[in-house]
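pasting Peptidase S54 rhomboid domain-containing protein for the record, 304 residues
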Amino acid sequence: MFGPNFGYRARRGPHVDRNGQAVALMLILVHQVQQLERKPPVTLGLMALMCSLHFQKNISSEVFARYYLCPNQVLNNSEYMRIVVSGLIHVDDWHLYHNMISFLWKGYNLEYKLGSMCFLFTISYLLVLCHALVVVGAFVLATGFQIAGPLHQCSVGFSGVLFALKIVLLNHNSPAFSSIHGFQVPTKYAAWLELVVIHFLVPRSSFMGHMCGILAGYVFVYSPSIMSIARRCSGWLQALTKPIANHCSNDPHTASHNVSRTSARPPAIFFETDKNWRNIVKKKNAYLNKKLPQSLQANFDVGV
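structre below
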């Protein structure tokens, strides 16, 4: 997530070098996807959605300005769509690329462990909770501590959800130590250290947005009821999508296609001589079973 004046690059007109950079980054991203042993459908679908919104934003950036996460606009004008849509749009190509690479790795591991439907619910829950905490935190700082800056600060990006996913991932049979920029640190402190490092390396990043993502991850991990709700919702989604899958499998066009392919195969042809040969072999085996000892019958059996 990016903080004040994050959109100055997006407001520039289209440029040839920038378009070439975007294509190059997308090709690298596609190459990374092709290297995966299994393809997580929800992760790839969300990545495609965010990439599509990003390229559309480059064409008409003014349309997306109304969806930036500005706490004062959410509170004063009840513009709650900002809480969801702001997490799906990005500042520039590099912002999108880094978030998608991180999301690809986290989604590849978590979607396999949680299941696609449960993972989709988890992403939705963390997205709403993370940005809702940003709004609440900005309101508390403005009213309780007279710090009005965060209340008027706008931000965009999927980074808060990525920090939340990092907390969820680190609590699924993770090792005791993790590597952060080449340094081995205890896993339970890895997300907090990364929060500080990113804040100093990228001063324009939203410290509050990333911190709220970590808090949202802890709320999800330490709330057993949330996981039970996630499993129920995933079960409902599977129940809703099952009739569609059955309808596709029972489609008459598909069925006729399968029948035509099956009927196109030449049937097995049996000649009269084959039947005669089978009868001869059966009679011979029956004769040998009567005349030969039990120990020698196996050596004279003739297969049909």
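The beta strands are 177-180, 183-186.
Confidence is low (pLDDT under 50) at residues 7-16, 254-278, 291-304.
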